Each structure stands twice: as C-alpha cells, then as structure tokens.
Amino acid sequence: MEFPGNPNIASKISEALELPTSPPTKTGGKSQVRVPFAEKDGRLVHVSAVERGLKCAAVCPVCRTAVVARKGDKTRHHFAHYPGANCSAETALHFIAKQLIYDKLITALSIRQVICIYWKCIVCSGRHDLNLLDGISSVVTEKSMGTCRPDIALLDSDRNPRILLEIVVSHRPDPQVLDFCSQGQIPLLIFRVRDAESLETLAAQTKLDPTVVLYCPRQRCTNCGGPLFPKRMFFFSSRCWRCNGPMKIAVMEINDKLYGPDYFSESDRRFAHEQGVVFRQHLNKTKQQMELALGCMNCGVATGSRYLGFHKKRTQKLPGHLRGTVCLKCRAHVDL
Asked: Strand locations in the chain, DSSP E?
C-alpha cells in the first residue's frame, strides 16, 4: 500500500508494530498461550472472576470447547484447553482483543462517552487528535466492505465507515484494508497484541491506545501528494553582523521549525519586502549552491540561515503572519 506522499509507509508500519519486514514462516504446530479470558454466560470473563478448575463453567470463545481455570501458585492464572484441543494461540489472542475493544466502544457509545486518541503521525511527523465516536451511530465487527473485511468498523448514521480498527498479532495488517483506508482517507487504528499480558493491559485501560494510527488529517499537495503545513512569518529588528547597521530579519515557521528566505514563495518575498526586508543571493558552502538570503540595506552583505536558531524563543511569544500552506517535500506553496 502506497499512502499518498509517503512510499515507505509499509515499512514504517512494520517498524512501529515491531514486525519483521517479511511475512513470518509457518511452524505447523499449535502454540500454547496462557489466555486470561474465556467466555461465560455469553460474555468475556477474567480468570480472577471465576472459580478454579472446571467449576469456572467457561468455554474458549474461539473453539467453543470447555476450558479449565488454572489458578495455582507457580504460574500466572489463566484458562487452559484440554490436551489435544485444536485451537490456535494467535487466533485466540486476536479474537479476545477484538472483543475487548468492541465492548469498550459499545459501552462508550451507549453512554455517549467521549473517546479521544492522540498520536504522532508517521506521515507528517506532526501530532494529531481525534474523537473516535464523534458522528458515530454503530460499531460492527467483520463487516464486509467490498474488497476487505476489517476487524472493527465505526459507522455513521448512513452506515458508511468513518473509522476502521485492526488487531495485529504476528502478521502484518491486511493490505486490502490499508488500501481501502488510503483511498477513502479513512482513519485506521492498529492495535498490536503480542501475548496474554497485552490482553491484560488492553482490558485495564480506561481509554483506547492504538499502537499505530494510519491517518493524516492535513490537506494534500496537488503536485506530489505530500502533506501541507501552515506557514507563518515573523519579523524582527536586528543589526548587521558586518557594519552593525539596522537590519530587518524575516523567518518562516513550518511544522514547528524555522526556515529562511530560500523557503519563501514569491508572494512571501513581496510581503517581506514591504516590511523592510532586503534579499541577496548567497552561496551555501555546505550545499555548494546559491540560495536566497537576507541582506543588509546599508553594506549589502548577505546573512545565511545560521541566524534562525537565535529567534525560536522569540517566535513563541508572537502571533506571526499566517501566509497559507507549503509542502516540505516539493516546496509547493498554497498562498492566501
């Protein structure tokens, strides 16, 4: 799946989920896991809430066979299958995690609880937030959506998917789900479940904390598809480093970093010139190329970009001038 503006998104997802870059090989055997949840009377129960042994009267939610509550002194309390039971540990972890998340969402939706998530975007490196249940009317599992069947889907009143959730145990997310979300610009929340401890953590959380959120709400560059960032200009009075004459400084803040005139659009340069800023061509010795720089109106000397770091704290105290948006990938501007 190629997310717009980021051709390396698949490897970034695998890295964030701590998954191998190639699909895992099959071992053939049924692995064993001490699962702390089973089903009783139609709902998931924790092993701490039932009696020991067969008195627990619980079944595996996946294979529907009776399980035993192991509550000894030497190992972590868990539910166990009878010897020879044909039930996959990966399937059990996946199913129980899906049910735990589904139950949290259904409960929150019924009482109109706000569930907000916060994440650092793997597309633009910015920080975003999202209210999961805003505009949501229903929560469904394994709903077919043409080419894909996501684990959980949050639907609006027209039964359209607004947010999708996937649980990952050892395999990478379904490429069809990734493509579906990419094409429809639908947020995808991915939860990594490694073992029984992951289920314990998931059940204890009062909020949802996805491992990866594959969604960038920023507008897209029409030129290359990269994310567009707001750009804000700041102006300061300073002194020329050569002649000590008065000099006007201009900086551009983009994605919480400061940039010099080389990143200004033609409209930005005209606006800065109206504020008394003078521009000169300057040889960037590091890049060995000419670039636009600030100039002194008195002696004409050019000032490179090393001055930017001295003004970061000053910009935090001023509102600046909003100048539109820019794509840092191809430097395409969308001016106001």
From this structure: 37-40, 43-46, 68-70, 78-80, 116-120, 127-131, 138-141, 152-155, 161-168, 188-192, 212-214, 228-239, 246-254, 257-259, 278-284, 289-295, 302-303, 321-327, 333-335
Question: Which segments of the chain have a pLDDT < 50?
Answer: 1-2, 4-6, 21-31
The domain ranges of the chain are 9-16+88-214, 228-335
**Would you say 162 and 186 are in contact if contact means Cβ atoms under 8 Å apart?**
yes
Contact indicator for 38, 47 with CB cutoff of 8 Å? yes
Here the tokens at position 25 are 């090989």
| Residues in the chain, total | 336
Distance CA 293, CA 75 (A): 67
Tell me the per-residue pLDDT of 95-130, one tens digit each, with 9 for 90 and over: 999 999 999 999 999 999 999 999 999 888 889 999
Q: Which residues pair with 167 in a beta bridge?
A: 191
